Amino acid sequence: MTTKKKVITKDDIVSKYMEEVLEKGQKPKSVYHFAKDNDFTEAEFYAFFGTLEGLEKEIFRLFYENTVNLLHKNEEYQEYDMKNKMLSFYFTFFEILSANRSYVLQTLKIDRNPLKNLVQLTTLRNSFKEYVAEILTDEYRLEQERFQKFQEKAIQESSWLQLMLTIKFWMEDESAAFEKTDIFIEKSVNASFELMNVAPMNHLIDFGKFLFKEKVHSR
Length: 219
Description:
InterPro entries: Tet_transcr_reg_TetR-rel_C_sf, TetR_C_23
Order of helices and strands: HHHHHHHHHHH
Domain Tetracyclin repressor-like C-terminal: 85-211
Organism: Flavobacterium potami
Shape: elongated
Protein name: TetR/AcrR family transcriptional regulator
Largest sheet: none
Radius of gyration: 22 Å
Strand content: under 5%
Number of domains: 2
Structural class: mainly alpha
Number of helices: 11
């Protein structure tokens, strides 16, 4: 009697890839080698991913997706203000990273060129920027519509930079239970929201409009 071959899933491929990188200390040479070494076909791989690079990016996106799914399971989360939503995201995201720390550290240091390692984070970057846009509230949005688009992009980019700096800090954190990272998260998020306070910016814009009108009328 022929044993029916197990249908391989997307999660199976992700798990096998992470295991291979950890065990061999390097990335597979090709989809062919990866599939052959893990007893599935190239066709099964291509049903979910176009390239190994695409798989690498998807792993970090899945860390993000799992974070957001966990957040939405908490009924209180929906009532949080923007700052507390961001703090919740950070603490949950870094719990997931810590659960996969060996893989994250190895894969983000595997190439001598740091920029090549960071390519894996491009899908995470897009997803995180969308998340920031979703939780952005009127409290942190300029009243002047023509400045809003520029401001929102600036907030997204600065939030991504902050996440990258936190990842770097976490990667170098040697404290028990990464408690220094927790402190870093709280202080950096609090500081960023202080800087995002739009009230002074609105006053500056109003002042600028006043000066412009005065200059025009004085001619």
